[in-house]
Write a structure and sequence with these properties.
7-stranded mixed beta sheet; 14 strands; alpha/beta; Alpha-Beta Plaits; Rossmann fold
Amino acid sequence: MKWSELCIHTTNEAIEPISNILHEAGASGVVIEDPKDLAKEWDTMLGEVYELNPDDYPEEGVYVKAYLPLNSFLGETVDAIKQSINNLLLFDIDLGRNKITVSEVNEEDWATAWKKYYKPVKISEKVTITPTWEEYTPVSSDEVIIELDPGMAFGTGTHPTTVLSVQALERFVEEGHTVIDVGSGSGVLSIASVRLGAKQVYAYDLDEIAVKSTTINAKLNKVNEQIAVKQNNLLTNVEQQADIIVSNILAEIILRFEKDAYRCLKPGGVFITSGIIQAKKQAVKEALVAAGFEIVEMNQMEDWVSIIARKQ
């Protein structure tokens, strides 16, 4: 069987929304080629690290790649993808060069060979993300293991925005807490919340693929009874009160529901936001303060910012 490789030359800011567009178009996974990985110091304690070829990476921006079957509908699919990506400009998302190329590849072992690049990764003091096919033995008694299938939508759970969110959850979740996860994606933040002590998690996402992904991963990690998954537009019509609301989502989207987040938090509750680029952190901070929040702290990893706010 022949396949087509779509390569989008774009920016770090656009990775998440473009990846979602590709998943909705039928891609079972995406590959991110970021030149920053060439200079990154990799932790080799939990798995092998493979030599990276600089020729595979752009000099600036990133490549987002996906694979679609080569068929008579490919042209229409590619046109629809291009249009959806261009529509991101309406949300003030920087697309960079926004150059899309299509090339033909033969089906080889690449369909499964990519698995060798995914090894267990410790993303916080307690939490380790491990792919479902890897055998992993905890190195400490209090280690929290989350199994994910990177072949599903929404990646491996090791993106800086996810890491910032999990690190914040590890610090603020207490036994018996109620957590709301807005934009649940793969469900990793919902799962982490339960494993860190939350009694109940409400996971919301507008994307039906995300709802399915969260549901499957919750069952895979045997926490599905504590995670209520629902397709919903942010916090619209949500009356549930929570100790913590976590949202790893674009800054533009956070600015649409900061008042609802305040409404749904218990007094003293914490709002953990991530997915914010440097250029938009001030706008998010000001909106949170205007909604009544007190800024507790701001954290950064690579080009991404997380803001933790408290309901006074």
